[in-house]
Amino acid sequence: MRIAIVPGLAALLAGCGTPAPLTPPQGATLPVAPYGALTNPTAEELLRRDALAAPERSVELRRRSEERQDDPFDLPPE
Question: Which segments of 1-78 are extended strands (E)?
Fold first, then answer.
């Protein structure tokens, strides 16, 4: 019985991620245009993050053990 339920639940959950255009709820509006903008931004524009909000990560893997450099700001608590 349980074996039949698990695939059924998985199939139902797979349909939850259907992409649809974002719209404000009934009776609500999008925020007003930012200062200096000529038009109101769309929902997609409001969700888009610029490079400063989500910077790229630099992933440098350590290939071998290295001594740490002395950090002048690593002070013990007073």
Answer: none
Gap between the Cα atoms of 29 and 23, Å rounded: 9
**Amino acid symbol at 56:** E
pTM of the predicted model, to two decimals? 0.37
Regions in the chain scoring below 70 on pLDDT: 1-4, 9, 11-18
Helix (H, G, I), strand (E, B) or coil at 9: helix
Q: Which residues of 37-68 are buried (b: 16+ CB within 10 A; e: fewer)?
A: eeeeeeeeeeeeeeeeeeeeeeeeeeeeeeee
